[in-house]
Design goal:
Blueprint (H helix, E strand, L loop, with lengths): L1 E3 L6 E6 L5 E5 L10 E3 L4 E4 L4 E4 L5 E3 L8 E7 L2 E8 L6
Antiparallel strand pairs: 1-2, 2-3, 3-8, 4-5, 5-6, 6-7, 8-9
Length: 94
């Protein structure tokens, strides 16, 4: 499911993995900002522009040209509803 967090310009994707757990990440590939999509068959996030792949559980780069992981969005479940509560930009530490 696509959504925006924390602002309308910050596109994100919520996925339910094959193990039933939920995870959310920024939807822009860290290579050239193409939108990534969830491949249920491969249980990973994929970028169609330049063949990049990311872990559906961690957002870490699996293959391709992306230089850093996807932004991670922390989730909380309250009364059965899922809420985005924090967006972590990763890979720019150095």
């Amino acid at each position: 499911m696509n959504f925006a967090y924390p602002s309308e310009e910050d596109t994100a994707i919520l996925i339910r993995g094959t193990d039933g757990t939920y995870a959310a990440f920024g939807q822009k590939c860290t290579h050239l900002s193409c939108p990534v999509y969830y491949s249920k068959a491969n249980d990973r996030l994929e970028c169609p522009c330049h063949n990049g792949g990311f872990s559906s559980k961690t957002g870490e780069v699996l293959y391709g040209p992306p230089p850093r992981p996807l932004d991670r969005i922390e989730l909380e479940t309250i009364n059965g509803e899922i809420f985005a509560v924090k967006r972590e930009v990763r890979g720019n530490e150095g």
